[in-house]
């Protein structure tokens, strides 16, 4: 669904404070409260807005120690991601295109390694203790998507990436990647 400047401004205001009244948002974007409400409903129905959340200061809650865990080359990325997404203490799960899975979470300070081991099993992992975490949602650049280096279609989670001579290229499908690599090799000769 195409978004205009007003949609992005509304999203930015909601990202900063999801409880901000629609009438206040309307004052900023020069719309009525009901018009803002209609736009927010449209954004929710289209899936642009997933939901509204509360951001907790875990340090104030004294909710254990924060960790950043990196699991490189897991056997089943999707299964690991699903397992982590529903696990107690896991706050965010990030999967990169190269199959690396990173997650943040909190657990008792004296039990970090066994907590992580229980979550990831026999997978190889690294743990970093976090001093602080700042999460600032932003819609900057929200109007842009990664384009396939071969055909310019939008690259989604099913896409592929390769690194050639220090540059990363993204593709919408394996066919585009193969055509690009073939042409790249031919031109490199």
What does this structure look like?
With 189 residues, this protein is of the alpha+beta class. It folds into 3 domains: 5-45, Orthogonal Bundle (Arc Repressor Mutant, subunit A), CATH 1.10.10; 58-129, Alpha-Beta Plaits, CATH 3.30.70.920; 142-189, Ribosomal Protein L24e, Chain: T (Roll). 37% of the residues lie in helices and 19% in strands. β5 and β6 form a beta hairpin. The longest helix has 15 residues, at 174-188. The radius of gyration is 21 Å and the shape is flat. Keywords: DNA-binding, Transcription, Transcription regulation. Pfam families: HTH_AsnC-type, TRASH_HVO_1752_C. InterPro entries: ArsR-like_HTH, AsnC-type_HTH_dom, TRASH_dom, TRASH_HVO_1752, Tscrpt_reg_AsnC-like, WH-like_DNA-bd_sf, WH_DNA-bd_sf.
Superfamily (CATH H level) name of the largest domain: Lrp/AsnC effector binding domain/regulation of amino acid metabolism (RAM) domain
Estimate the helix proportion, in percent: 25-40%
Number of helices: 7
CATH architecture of the largest domain: 2-Layer Sandwich
The CATH class of the largest domain, by name, is Alpha Beta
Query: What is the chains' assembly state?
Result: single chain
> Given the C-alpha coordinates, what overall shape results?
flat
Mean pLDDT across all amino acids = 84
Number of domains: 3
Strands of the biggest beta sheet: in what spatial order? 2-3-1-4
CA gyration radius, whole angstroms = 21 Å
Secondary-structure element order, N to C: HHHHEHEEHEEEH
Uncertain spans, ≥5 residues at pLDDT below 50?
A: none
Largest sheet: 4 strands, antiparallel
Protein structure class: alpha+beta
């Amino acid at each position: 669904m195409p978004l205009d400047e007003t949609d992005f401004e509304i999203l930015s205001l909601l990202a900063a404070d999801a409880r901000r009244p629609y009438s206040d948002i309307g004052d900023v974007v020069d719309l009525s409260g009901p018009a803002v409400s209609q736009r927010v409903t449209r954004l929710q129905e289209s899936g642009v807005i997933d939901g509204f959340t509360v951001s907790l200061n875990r340090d104030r809650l004294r909710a254990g120690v924060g960790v950043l865990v990196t699991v490189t080359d897991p056997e089943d990325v999707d299964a690991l991601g699903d397992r982590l997404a529903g696990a107690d203490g896991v706050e965010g799960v990030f999967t990169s295109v190269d199959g690396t899975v990173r997650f943040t979470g909190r657990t008792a300070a004296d039990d970090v390694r066994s907590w992580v081991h229980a979550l990831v099993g026999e997978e190889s992992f690294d743990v970093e203790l976090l001093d602080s975490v700042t999460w600032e949602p932003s819609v900057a650049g929200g109007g842009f998507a990664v384009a396939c280096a071969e055909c310019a279609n939008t690259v989604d989670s099913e896409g592929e990436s390769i690194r050639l001579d220090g540059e990363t290229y993204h593709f919408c499908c394996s066919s585009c990647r193969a055509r690009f690599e073939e042409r790249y090799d031919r031109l490199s000769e």
